[in-house]
Amino acid sequence: MTSSVPKVRLAGGLEICRVLNGMWQVSGAHGTVNKTKAVEAMQAYVDAGLTTFDMADIYGPAEEIYGLFNSQLKSSGSAAPALQGLTKFVPRPGPMDRKVVEKALQRSLNRMQVDALDCVQFHWWDYKDKRYLDALGHLSDLQQEGVIRELALTNFDTQRLEEIANKGICISSNQVQYSLIDQRPAAKMEQFCVANNIKLLTYGTLAGGLLSERYLGKAEPSSRAELHTASLSKYKNMIDSWGGWTLFQDLLVALETIAKRQECSVASVATRYVLDRPAVGGVIIGCRFGVAGAGQHISDSLCSCSPDLKLTAEDHAAIDVVTQRSRDLMALIGDCGDEYRR
Protein backbone atom coordinates (compact mmCIF):
# COMPACT_ATOMS: atom_id res chain seq x y z
CA MET A 1 0.00 0.00 0.00
CA THR A 2 1.39 3.42 -0.99
CA SER A 3 1.76 5.93 1.81
CA SER A 4 0.63 9.48 1.26
CA VAL A 5 4.00 11.19 0.82
CA PRO A 6 3.62 15.00 0.78
CA LYS A 7 4.44 16.68 -2.52
CA VAL A 8 5.59 20.13 -3.54
CA ARG A 9 4.89 21.80 -6.88
CA LEU A 10 7.83 23.47 -8.62
CA ALA A 11 7.50 26.67 -10.68
CA GLY A 12 7.01 24.78 -13.97
CA GLY A 13 4.26 22.55 -12.55
CA LEU A 14 6.22 19.37 -11.73
CA GLU A 15 5.14 17.76 -8.47
CA ILE A 16 7.90 16.05 -6.51
CA CYS A 17 8.03 14.25 -3.16
CA ARG A 18 9.22 16.31 -0.20
CA VAL A 19 11.70 13.51 0.53
CA LEU A 20 13.79 12.64 -2.53
CA ASN A 21 15.86 9.51 -3.06
CA GLY A 22 19.47 10.63 -3.62
CA MET A 23 21.68 8.71 -6.05
CA TRP A 24 25.13 10.24 -5.46
CA GLN A 25 25.68 7.06 -3.46
CA VAL A 26 25.80 4.92 -6.64
CA SER A 27 28.67 6.96 -8.11
CA GLY A 28 31.26 4.51 -6.72
CA ALA A 29 32.52 6.53 -3.74
CA HIS A 30 30.22 4.68 -1.32
CA GLY A 31 31.06 1.08 -2.22
CA THR A 32 30.90 -1.07 -5.34
CA VAL A 33 27.51 -0.92 -7.04
CA ASN A 34 25.75 -3.89 -8.59
CA LYS A 35 23.49 -2.36 -11.27
CA THR A 36 20.98 -5.21 -11.31
CA LYS A 37 20.61 -5.13 -7.53
CA ALA A 38 20.40 -1.32 -7.61
CA VAL A 39 17.44 -1.46 -9.99
CA GLU A 40 15.76 -4.09 -7.78
CA ALA A 41 16.32 -1.99 -4.64
CA MET A 42 14.49 1.03 -6.10
CA GLN A 43 11.15 -0.77 -6.18
CA ALA A 44 10.62 -0.74 -2.40
CA TYR A 45 11.00 3.06 -2.34
CA VAL A 46 8.46 3.53 -5.13
CA ASP A 47 6.07 1.07 -3.44
CA ALA A 48 6.30 3.26 -0.32
CA GLY A 49 5.34 6.34 -2.37
CA LEU A 50 8.88 7.77 -2.57
CA THR A 51 8.85 8.26 -6.35
CA THR A 52 11.31 11.15 -6.79
CA PHE A 53 14.97 10.41 -7.59
CA ASP A 54 17.86 12.86 -7.67
CA MET A 55 20.95 12.12 -9.77
CA ALA A 56 23.53 13.73 -12.06
CA ASP A 57 25.35 13.21 -15.32
CA ILE A 58 28.57 12.84 -13.26
CA TYR A 59 27.25 10.27 -10.73
CA GLY A 60 28.69 7.23 -12.49
CA PRO A 61 25.88 4.89 -13.62
CA ALA A 62 23.09 6.77 -11.76
CA GLU A 63 21.19 7.90 -14.87
CA GLU A 64 21.52 4.44 -16.45
CA ILE A 65 20.23 2.72 -13.30
CA TYR A 66 17.26 5.10 -13.23
CA GLY A 67 16.64 4.43 -16.94
CA LEU A 68 16.69 0.67 -16.47
CA PHE A 69 14.26 0.93 -13.55
CA ASN A 70 12.02 3.39 -15.40
CA SER A 71 11.89 1.12 -18.46
CA GLN A 72 11.20 -1.96 -16.33
CA LEU A 73 8.41 -0.18 -14.46
CA LYS A 74 6.72 0.94 -17.68
CA SER A 75 6.88 -2.53 -19.24
CA SER A 76 5.51 -4.27 -16.13
CA GLY A 77 2.00 -3.76 -17.47
CA SER A 78 0.53 -2.72 -14.14
CA ALA A 79 -0.62 0.82 -13.35
CA ALA A 80 2.87 1.97 -12.42
CA PRO A 81 3.15 5.22 -10.47
CA ALA A 82 4.77 8.16 -12.24
CA LEU A 83 8.44 8.69 -11.37
CA GLN A 84 10.18 12.04 -11.16
CA GLY A 85 13.80 11.97 -12.29
CA LEU A 86 15.85 15.05 -11.43
CA THR A 87 19.29 15.12 -12.99
CA LYS A 88 22.15 17.61 -13.25
CA PHE A 89 24.23 19.15 -16.01
CA VAL A 90 27.75 19.62 -14.63
CA PRO A 91 29.94 20.68 -17.57
CA ARG A 92 33.67 21.16 -17.53
CA PRO A 93 34.67 24.78 -18.19
CA GLY A 94 34.63 25.53 -21.91
CA PRO A 95 32.48 26.91 -24.72
CA MET A 96 28.78 26.79 -23.92
CA ASP A 97 27.16 27.00 -27.35
CA ARG A 98 23.79 25.37 -27.94
CA LYS A 99 25.29 22.20 -29.47
CA VAL A 100 27.35 21.50 -26.33
CA VAL A 101 24.26 21.87 -24.12
CA GLU A 102 22.04 19.82 -26.46
CA LYS A 103 24.59 17.00 -26.62
CA ALA A 104 24.79 16.78 -22.81
CA LEU A 105 21.00 16.72 -22.44
CA GLN A 106 20.62 14.11 -25.18
CA ARG A 107 23.02 11.86 -23.28
CA SER A 108 20.88 12.18 -20.16
CA LEU A 109 17.68 11.55 -22.15
CA ASN A 110 19.18 8.37 -23.62
CA ARG A 111 20.54 7.07 -20.33
CA MET A 112 17.38 7.83 -18.36
CA GLN A 113 15.18 6.42 -21.16
CA VAL A 114 12.80 9.38 -21.18
CA ASP A 115 11.38 11.69 -23.88
CA ALA A 116 11.83 14.84 -21.77
CA LEU A 117 13.84 15.63 -18.66
CA ASP A 118 11.70 16.37 -15.60
CA CYS A 119 14.32 18.69 -14.14
CA VAL A 120 17.86 19.73 -15.06
CA GLN A 121 19.90 21.23 -12.21
CA PHE A 122 22.85 23.20 -13.56
CA HIS A 123 26.20 23.46 -11.76
CA TRP A 124 29.12 25.72 -12.70
CA TRP A 125 32.60 25.55 -11.21
CA ASP A 126 33.97 29.06 -11.74
CA TYR A 127 31.93 32.27 -11.43
CA LYS A 128 34.72 34.30 -13.06
CA ASP A 129 33.92 32.41 -16.27
CA LYS A 130 30.62 34.06 -17.21
CA ARG A 131 29.74 31.41 -19.79
CA TYR A 132 27.36 29.94 -17.21
CA LEU A 133 24.93 32.62 -18.44
CA ASP A 134 25.28 31.29 -22.02
CA ALA A 135 24.55 27.76 -20.82
CA LEU A 136 21.51 28.91 -18.85
CA GLY A 137 20.23 30.85 -21.86
CA HIS A 138 20.33 27.67 -23.97
CA LEU A 139 18.79 25.60 -21.17
CA SER A 140 15.97 28.14 -20.90
CA ASP A 141 15.36 27.92 -24.68
CA LEU A 142 15.31 24.12 -24.49
CA GLN A 143 12.81 24.34 -21.63
CA GLN A 144 10.53 26.45 -23.87
CA GLU A 145 10.89 23.74 -26.54
CA GLY A 146 9.76 21.02 -24.11
CA VAL A 147 13.08 19.19 -23.68
CA ILE A 148 13.19 20.18 -19.98
CA ARG A 149 10.22 20.64 -17.63
CA GLU A 150 12.01 22.42 -14.77
CA LEU A 151 15.22 24.45 -15.01
CA ALA A 152 17.10 24.48 -11.72
CA LEU A 153 20.52 25.11 -10.18
CA THR A 154 22.93 23.26 -7.91
CA ASN A 155 25.25 24.95 -5.42
CA PHE A 156 24.78 28.50 -6.69
CA ASP A 157 25.14 31.35 -4.19
CA THR A 158 22.57 34.09 -3.53
CA GLN A 159 24.43 36.74 -5.54
CA ARG A 160 24.50 34.58 -8.68
CA LEU A 161 20.91 33.41 -8.11
CA GLU A 162 19.81 37.05 -8.12
CA GLU A 163 21.90 37.79 -11.22
CA ILE A 164 20.29 34.88 -13.11
CA ALA A 165 16.76 35.82 -12.01
CA ASN A 166 17.40 39.41 -13.15
CA LYS A 167 18.24 38.07 -16.63
CA GLY A 168 14.65 36.80 -16.82
CA ILE A 169 15.62 33.11 -16.50
CA CYS A 170 13.00 31.25 -14.48
CA ILE A 171 14.69 29.00 -11.91
CA SER A 172 12.59 26.37 -10.09
CA SER A 173 15.01 25.28 -7.39
CA ASN A 174 18.56 25.44 -6.08
CA GLN A 175 20.15 22.35 -4.54
CA VAL A 176 22.28 23.25 -1.52
CA GLN A 177 23.70 21.77 1.64
CA TYR A 178 21.33 22.41 4.56
CA SER A 179 21.32 20.69 7.92
CA LEU A 180 21.36 21.32 11.65
CA ILE A 181 25.14 21.64 11.17
CA ASP A 182 25.17 23.77 8.02
CA GLN A 183 22.48 26.45 8.27
CA ARG A 184 24.04 28.89 5.79
CA PRO A 185 20.92 28.99 3.54
CA ALA A 186 19.06 30.76 6.38
CA ALA A 187 21.48 33.72 6.28
CA LYS A 188 20.60 35.16 2.84
CA MET A 189 19.38 32.63 0.33
CA GLU A 190 16.17 31.59 2.06
CA GLN A 191 14.74 35.12 1.94
CA PHE A 192 15.54 35.57 -1.78
CA CYS A 193 14.05 32.16 -2.65
CA VAL A 194 10.80 32.80 -0.77
CA ALA A 195 10.40 36.15 -2.56
CA ASN A 196 11.03 34.57 -5.99
CA ASN A 197 9.19 31.21 -5.72
CA ILE A 198 12.43 29.24 -5.85
CA LYS A 199 12.52 26.04 -3.79
CA LEU A 200 15.58 24.77 -1.99
CA LEU A 201 16.31 21.06 -2.41
CA THR A 202 18.70 20.12 0.35
CA TYR A 203 21.47 17.55 0.72
CA GLY A 204 23.78 16.71 3.62
CA THR A 205 20.73 16.98 5.89
CA LEU A 206 21.79 13.84 7.79
CA ALA A 207 25.51 14.62 7.45
CA GLY A 208 26.14 11.39 5.56
CA GLY A 209 24.56 9.36 8.38
CA LEU A 210 26.49 11.01 11.21
CA LEU A 211 23.25 12.62 12.45
CA SER A 212 21.93 9.34 13.86
CA GLU A 213 21.84 7.30 17.06
CA ARG A 214 24.76 5.24 15.75
CA TYR A 215 27.26 8.00 16.61
CA LEU A 216 25.79 9.03 19.96
CA GLY A 217 28.37 8.55 22.73
CA LYS A 218 30.96 7.27 20.26
CA ALA A 219 34.61 8.28 20.13
CA GLU A 220 35.51 10.70 17.35
CA PRO A 221 36.04 8.80 14.07
CA SER A 222 39.24 9.74 12.29
CA SER A 223 40.59 6.81 10.25
CA ARG A 224 39.61 5.98 6.69
CA ALA A 225 38.22 2.68 7.99
CA GLU A 226 35.80 4.61 10.22
CA LEU A 227 35.00 7.29 7.63
CA HIS A 228 34.65 4.72 4.87
CA THR A 229 32.37 6.60 2.45
CA ALA A 230 32.76 9.92 0.65
CA SER A 231 29.75 11.22 2.61
CA LEU A 232 31.14 10.37 6.05
CA SER A 233 34.48 11.98 5.23
CA LYS A 234 32.89 15.11 3.71
CA TYR A 235 30.46 15.76 6.56
CA LYS A 236 32.94 14.94 9.33
CA ASN A 237 35.02 17.81 7.90
CA MET A 238 31.91 20.02 8.06
CA ILE A 239 31.38 19.08 11.73
CA ASP A 240 35.02 19.99 12.44
CA SER A 241 34.47 23.42 10.86
CA TRP A 242 31.14 23.89 12.65
CA GLY A 243 32.38 23.25 16.18
CA GLY A 244 33.94 19.81 16.58
CA TRP A 245 32.99 16.40 17.92
CA THR A 246 32.24 17.40 21.54
CA LEU A 247 29.66 19.98 20.45
CA PHE A 248 28.29 17.47 17.93
CA GLN A 249 27.78 14.98 20.78
CA ASP A 250 25.78 17.66 22.65
CA LEU A 251 23.62 18.04 19.55
CA LEU A 252 23.04 14.27 19.31
CA VAL A 253 22.02 14.15 23.00
CA ALA A 254 19.48 16.94 22.40
CA LEU A 255 18.17 15.22 19.26
CA GLU A 256 17.83 11.86 21.00
CA THR A 257 15.77 13.48 23.78
CA ILE A 258 13.48 15.03 21.16
CA ALA A 259 13.30 11.76 19.20
CA LYS A 260 12.17 9.86 22.31
CA ARG A 261 9.55 12.49 23.05
CA GLN A 262 8.34 12.36 19.41
CA GLU A 263 8.64 8.55 19.18
CA CYS A 264 10.83 8.67 16.09
CA SER A 265 14.52 8.50 15.15
CA VAL A 266 17.24 11.16 15.43
CA ALA A 267 17.38 11.15 11.60
CA SER A 268 13.66 11.95 11.38
CA VAL A 269 14.05 14.91 13.76
CA ALA A 270 17.05 16.23 11.79
CA THR A 271 15.15 15.88 8.49
CA ARG A 272 11.94 17.44 9.81
CA TYR A 273 13.87 20.44 11.11
CA VAL A 274 15.09 21.24 7.59
CA LEU A 275 11.77 20.38 5.90
CA ASP A 276 10.11 23.01 8.09
CA ARG A 277 12.49 25.80 7.02
CA PRO A 278 11.15 28.57 4.74
CA ALA A 279 11.84 27.95 1.02
CA VAL A 280 12.73 24.26 1.51
CA GLY A 281 10.81 22.21 -1.04
CA GLY A 282 12.40 18.86 -0.32
CA VAL A 283 15.20 17.01 1.43
CA ILE A 284 17.39 14.54 -0.47
CA ILE A 285 18.19 11.39 1.50
CA GLY A 286 21.03 9.32 0.03
CA CYS A 287 20.23 5.74 -0.99
CA ARG A 288 23.03 3.22 -1.51
CA PHE A 289 21.14 1.25 -4.16
CA GLY A 290 23.00 -1.92 -5.10
CA VAL A 291 25.75 -1.57 -2.47
CA ALA A 292 26.24 -4.79 -0.51
CA GLY A 293 25.18 -4.48 3.13
CA ALA A 294 23.54 -1.07 2.67
CA GLY A 295 20.42 -0.56 4.75
CA GLN A 296 17.15 1.02 3.70
CA HIS A 297 15.81 4.12 5.41
CA ILE A 298 12.28 4.09 4.03
CA SER A 299 10.47 4.15 7.38
CA ASP A 300 12.62 7.08 8.60
CA SER A 301 11.93 8.99 5.38
CA LEU A 302 8.18 8.41 5.66
CA CYS A 303 8.17 9.41 9.32
CA SER A 304 10.16 12.60 8.74
CA CYS A 305 7.66 13.97 6.19
CA SER A 306 4.54 12.72 7.99
CA PRO A 307 2.11 15.40 9.22
CA ASP A 308 2.15 13.52 12.54
CA LEU A 309 5.70 14.69 13.26
CA LYS A 310 5.53 18.27 14.51
CA LEU A 311 8.55 19.80 16.22
CA THR A 312 7.48 21.94 19.17
CA ALA A 313 8.84 25.26 20.48
CA GLU A 314 10.47 23.19 23.24
CA ASP A 315 12.18 20.99 20.62
CA HIS A 316 13.49 24.03 18.74
CA ALA A 317 14.74 25.64 21.95
CA ALA A 318 16.69 22.48 22.86
CA ILE A 319 18.34 22.47 19.43
CA ASP A 320 19.10 26.21 19.51
CA VAL A 321 20.88 25.92 22.86
CA VAL A 322 23.48 23.74 21.11
CA THR A 323 23.65 25.27 17.62
CA GLN A 324 24.15 28.84 18.89
CA ARG A 325 27.46 27.68 20.38
CA SER A 326 28.77 26.72 16.93
CA ARG A 327 30.99 28.73 14.57
CA ASP A 328 29.55 31.00 11.87
CA LEU A 329 29.94 28.96 8.67
CA MET A 330 28.95 31.93 6.48
CA ALA A 331 31.99 33.81 7.81
CA LEU A 332 34.20 30.72 7.70
CA ILE A 333 33.24 29.21 4.31
CA GLY A 334 31.02 31.76 2.54
CA ASP A 335 27.57 31.37 1.01
CA CYS A 336 26.06 28.10 -0.24
CA GLY A 337 28.33 26.27 -2.66
CA ASP A 338 31.39 28.42 -1.98
CA GLU A 339 33.18 25.32 -0.65
CA TYR A 340 33.29 24.02 -4.25
CA ARG A 341 34.94 27.18 -5.59
CA ARG A 342 37.86 27.86 -3.26
Descriptive report:
This protein starts with 6 loop residues before the first strand and ends in a 10-residue tail after the last helix. The relative contact order is 0.16. By secondary structure, the protein is of the alpha/beta class. It contains twelve helices and ten strands.
Tell me the number of helical segments per DSSP (H or I, 4 or more residues long): 12
User: Can you give the mean pLDDT?
Assistant: 93
Class based on secondary structure composition and strand pairing? alpha/beta
Beta strands, count: 10
SSE arrangement, N to C = EEEHEHEHEHEHEHEHHHEHHH
Low-confidence stretches: none
The amount of beta strand, in percent, is 5-15%
Biggest sheet overview: 8 strands, parallel, barrel
The 3D shape can be described as globular
Q: Distance N terminus to C terminus?
A: 47 Å
Major sheet strand order: 3-4-5-6-7-8-9-10
Helix content: 25-40%
Rg estimate, integer Å: 19 Å
Q: How are the SSEs ordered, and which strands pair?
A:
Elements: E1 7-9, E2 15-17, E3 19-22, H1 35-47, E4 52-54, H2 62-75, E5 84-89, H3 98-112, E6 117-122, H4 131-144, E7 148-154, H5 158-166, E8 173-177, H6 189-195, E9 199-203, H7 230-242, H8 245-262, H9 266-275, E10 280-286, H10 298-304, H11 313-323, H12 329-332
Parallel strand pairs: 3-4, 3-10, 4-5, 5-6, 6-7, 7-8, 8-9, 9-10
Antiparallel strand pairs: 1-2
Helix pairs in contact: 1-2, 2-3, 8-9, 8-11, 9-10
Write a short abstract of this structure.
The chain is α/β, with parallel strands linked by helices. The protein contains twelve helices and ten strands.
